[in-house]
Amino acid sequence: MELRQLEYLVAVVEEGSFTRAAQRERVAQPAVSAQIRRLERMVGQQLLTRSSREVRLTEAGAALLPHARAALAAVRAAQHAVDEVADIVRGAVAIGTVTLHPVDVAALMADFHRDHPQVELTLLTDNSDELLVGLADGRLDLAIVSVAADVMPDGLDGVPITDEIIEAAVALDHPLRRRATVTLPELCQLPLISLPVGTGLRSRLDEACAAAGVRPRIGFEATNPQELADLARHGLGVAILPRSMARGDAGLHALRLTPTLRGRLVWAWRRDSVGPAARAFCALARRSLRSADRE
């Protein structure tokens, strides 16, 4: 077996498509198909079933997949060991971020590329749930994600970027404009304006409502917190926002939630799989946060 064949097999499985696997591996799609066919001839079994809609592992493919991943991981570990001895940082770092955060990731990437030109950097933007999945399955090396205020997901380490209270915000002519606080049961009787399921802010809201035994009435969803504020300002409901946004908009009246909701943004990475390049980027990210704290 060739490592390239195993790499293509893993890529097809993870991407669910020969075309997307080829794009990920930066080769033509026929090259991926040809290498998978050679691998199947070598093992004497069909590894994938192909249809116009999807690609699935056969029983033989499912048996081979964990060994393929282990072999590729062993090769990466061997290269990391050699590079560390030689004090060389190379390879690739895959970074993920949520849509809104205060980190200048582009500047970090530029600084890192200047110091480590042999490392390939990629950047993905998605919601926190998808980014956490990417960290768990190894597609991402580190990511800016939203997590609960008092816990890190299993298997992850990280450093905090922000830790902020979540509040409600309404238009200046809303019936709640004279209130300073609102309880979750009261809040859930009103049409809410929230980020979609999968985002950190929505997860904190859903978790708190579940703990209180109530269900939120989502009237509108938007993918950017600023859009939530805009909708609330026009009287379309109660926006769920970070406190800095709820209280920083002159067209909104902010209300404290009871009980208090908090959310954190963190740089997160897998505890057991950070290679030299990813470690170097993590160190740069940590230094940038310390510098920001001193300013």
In short:
By secondary structure, the protein is an alpha/beta fold. It is built from 11 helices and 12 strands.
Range of strand content: 25-35%
CATH classification, class level of the largest domain: Alpha Beta
Q: How many beta strands in the DSSP annotation?
A: 12
The value of Rg in angstroms is 23 Å
What is the CATH architecture annotation of the largest domain? Answer: 3-Layer(aba) Sandwich
N-to-C SSE string, H for helix and E for strand: HHHEEHEHEHEEEHEHEHEHEEH
Spatial gap, N to C terminus: 54 Å
- Which structural class best describes the helix and strand composition? alpha/beta
CATH topology group of the largest domain: D-Maltodextrin-Binding Protein, domain 2
- Major sheet description: 10 strands, mixed
Helical residue percent? 40-55%
**Tally of helical runs:** 11
General shape: elongated
The total domain count is 3
Mean model confidence by pLDDT: 88
The residue ranges in which pLDDT falls below 50 over 5 or more consecutive positions are: none
GO cellular component, one term: protein-DNA complex
Family: Belongs to the LysR transcriptional regulatory family.
Protein name: Probable hydrogen peroxide-inducible genes activator
Function: Required for the induction the katG gene for catalase. Involved in the response to hydrogen peroxide.
